[in-house]
Amino acid sequence: MILLRRLLGDVLRRQRQRQGRTLREVSSSARVSLGYLSEVERGQKEASSELLSAICDALDVRMSQVMREVSDELSLAELAESAAASEKVPAPMRPMLNSVSVTSVTGVPEERVTIKAPAEAVDVVAA
């Protein structure tokens, strides 16, 4: 099962770490407790839209950018889940999922980019 709160927490943590900032700095700037921000980053707590806005402001990053990254990771996680489910299919019939090509959203239809999903980015739970 893919948990949106986990993906969101991972994106927020990476944003913070790219800036070389501590949890304490961001929690103070966002006016949220250190422990709660830590739980959000670990995917243990759901961030409300107000809290997410405060965290994005503290990180000086647009919420749309954060949500775009979450959306990209969600797409990859869904593909990985699909691939894991297809492992029940005999090998000759199994689709290969090493990477996925997506059309850029920059408005240039010919521009293409290949994204490879890191295995650790996805939690797959067998049904």
UniProtKB/TrEMBL annotation:
Pfam families: HTH_31. Signal peptide: none annotated. It comes from the Bacteria. Residues 12-66 form the HTH cro/C1-type domain. InterPro entries: Cro/C1-type_HTH, Lambda_DNA-bd_dom_sf. This is Helix-turn-helix domain-containing protein.
